[in-house]
Amino acid sequence: MNRLFGQPLKVVNCGLSSFADNLRLAGGDVIHANWQPPALGDVDAGLDLAWLMRHPLVEAANEAAFARYLEAQPVLADVVTAADALPAMNERKLILHSGPPIAWNDMCGPVKGAIIGAVMLEGWAADHAAAERLILDGKVDLEPCHHHDAVGPMAGIISPSMPLFVVENKVNGHRTYSNLNEGLGKVLRFGANSTEVLERLRWMKATLAPALKAALAVSGEIELKPLMAQALHMGDEVHNRNSAATGLFIKRIVPALLGTPLPLAQIREASAAIIANDHFFLNISMAACKSMMDAAANVPFSSMVTVMARNGVNFGIRLSGTGGRWFQAKANPVEGLFFPGYGVDDAAADLGDSAITETAGGNPAFTLPALNFAPTAAGIDARKVADRGILPVINTGIAHKEAGVGQIGAGITTAPMECFVEAIKALADAVKHHEGRAS
Q1: Which of 185, 232, 233, 277 is in the most buried spot, having the most CB atoms within 10 Å?
Q2: Pfam families, from UniProt (predicted)?
């Protein structure tokens, strides 16, 4: 022991970094390990996590869920109105929003503004005040897009008259949906609801959607995985950067538009709108990723994450093995670049269903040239998130916290760890119940 302390020593410090700082000040040679207890130090969750790691039921379930995800073959099949696609829209006044469930009084400004705009778009109310009264009186139901096989960026609003992209998984026939992208500026998905915004939505229903539907009838179904893979090779990440994907889509859809019997003026208007909007493909990629993740859903005991979504207040995840249950925590702020005149105090918290793209990640069909065309990582295992403390990173736009202002920047954020800790507890309870073990 005396000989040991007579030699040059190197200290490995775990825990508080101040311990390492003090040793350095005293002249010590220190390596600080950036470590913290798994599952946020929750003892019960940590024990559940240790038990679930390499559990044969969970491992087998994850293999099955991941195989279904890889097998999915999403195609853009059609464009239809929400009322035609979603049966619930014909049974009651229903508006869908992004993220996990949330009550009207708890919603953020952009989502409230977008819902009010949708109520007016449907003709259920003549002005903002009347629309809000209708909602407060319980005469309009508000539910997550994910509860209806759908997704929407930012506020994520879908109302009965809105046109939807229809994506079908050719392996199992399951269909998923997304609304059409409005472009940038003051748009409904960022909470704007002016006359200009509503008129643009009416034009999309009357002119753009029928043109897209007619073009798809000419082109036939468009396979989306090859298109997305090519866009990745061209520099897109098929979430916040969609220029290449939109360009590839234009190459498919414009020749088909020219093959329709539609009036030339309508073809010109529709083509111009798509070409002017680099984000046009975003909503299609979201529905495609939703299709792939839905294929992996509802595999008992799987710890694979199938949904990550935000409503501007809370962040929610769902696991394949825990059914449709949401695990929620306060949504993190977004770290990014702001447009001139805006800052972090102006921003709403993380918002939108577009994190379905990060949930899907990649797979062997999606490769990256910068990594010698290695397949991109795919599949989020809630166990590994809680164990390693490495949170999924999400690329997103930033909405102003007040309705009507619109987008004020873009950046990145992470999912909150609390969601994964609660999911681990629930999954452990399900496995224990199956095995007849006491909690």
Answers
A1: 232
A2: AllG
Encoding tokens for residue 243?
């220029």
Decide if 170 contacts 128 (C-beta within 8 A). no
Contacts of 110 (CB under 8 A, 6+ apart): 154, 155, 190, 191, 312, 348, 351, 399, 400, 401, 402, 403
Q: What is the pLDDT of residues 124-182, one digit of tens each?
A: 999 999 999 999 999 999 999 999 999 999 999 999 999 999 999 999 999 999 999 99
Give the whole-angstrom CA distance, residue 1 versus residue 385.
40
**Rounded percentage of the chain residues whose pLDDT exceeds 70:** 98
Asked whether the beta carbons of 135 and 119 are under 8 A apart, the reply is: yes
* Cα gap 257→267, rounded to integer Å: 6
- In the chain, CATH 3.90.1710.10 covers 73-289
* Share of the chain residues as helix, strand and coil, in percent rounded to the nearest 5: 45, 20, 35
Q: How much is the average pLDDT of 211-240? A: 96
Query: Which alpha helices (H) appear in 13-108, and where do they start and end?
Result: 17-25, 43-52, 56-71, 82-85
The CATH topology of domain 73-289 is Enterococcus faecalis V583 fold (3.90.1710)
Indicate the DSSP class of residue 335.
Answer: E
The angle, 0 to 180 degrees and rounded to 10, between the axes of the packed helices 417-435 and 43-52 is 60
b (16+ CB within 10 A) / e for 384-401: ebbbebebbebbbbbbbb
**What six digits make up the tokens of 179?**
């609304």
**CA neighbor of 154 nearest in space, from 331, 298, 19:** 331
Ranges in the chain annotated CATH 3.90.1700.10 = 41-67+296-435
Residue 315 is encoded by which pair of tokens? 């962040």
Average pLDDT over every residue of 316-325: 96
